[in-house]
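Hey Z.,

So I finally got round to the iron/sulfur cluster thing we talked about over coffee. Here's the setup:
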Amino acid sequence: MENKLKAIVLLSGGLDSSLATKIILEQNIEIMALNFFTPFCRCNRIKGCYSVAKYFSEKVGIPIKRIFLGEEYLKIIENPKYGYGKNLNPCIDCRILMFKKAKEIMEKEGFSFIVTGEVLDQRPKSQTLKALKIIEKETGLEGLIVRPLSANLLPETIPEKKGWIDRSKLLSIKGRRRETQFYLADFYGIKDYPCPAGGCLLTDPSFSKRMRDLIEFGSVDLKNIELIKIGRHFRLTPFTKLIIGRNELENKKILALKEMDDIIIRSENFEVVGILKGCVSENVKYFSIRLVAKYIRDSNDYKKVIIENNKRMELLNVKPIEVSNFLRI
Ligand code: SF4
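And the result:
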């Protein structure tokens, strides 16, 4: 039986990485796909990039592994060596982490090189020639990353030099325009791909504002990141934050994310649920209870509010308070 060369492709589920996979498969290379996800992906197993990547990998007959970047990812986001993009997206450091993981698998499982759908100058932060070189240097993958969509504009890689793949069959796409990719998608019959970078919350200005608050007040952890994806957030003091759900789903999520010392402030029927986190003085607690009361929709001037803390439950009748937006994050 023919002994094929094996490569890893970083398959996001977007069009570019799908095209890169197709182009390399045509060169008789065996491929395994890695699909990375972080706490900041909008997608989940059912919806979004992963389901598209999985569907695509099944269609072209390649295995796919899904890899979660959790705690390690949080370490880079607080102080990324290569800084942030337009919002709080540490794209270069993020790519370095992904490539390091891919390299570990490549070495352990006998793959020869890595393929990506990166396009030169498509993204201002992570896809300039300088950034691509930094990523290769930092990961020790110099010459081992093949970018089929832009390969003819980039230095020759080891797989090309060794004749494992034919450089003349690789492309010279550059920049943000995507006509060539759309043409190729048509040619290869690739449909329903998500938009590029649309899946990363760190590129979203409002989410980045909340994330910045977590970094500033030293509360970056996986549970707090889940919380900043939902609800109304109020920074009450440097040590205290109140989050109030906006609907039943968010209320349930808040209750599920409660930690030992958190205080739950809610309406009797759970229609309004808030969570008070941090070091709480009596004044701040009372202020929060009145703030939660503001969202309880009944005709009474005073609202019944339940406060739960470490198995203790208290019922108060309070007058709702209005707050100006400066507390909102
Ligand atoms: S957009 Fe998000 S997931 Fe993509 S490289 Fe940047 S930080 Fe990483």
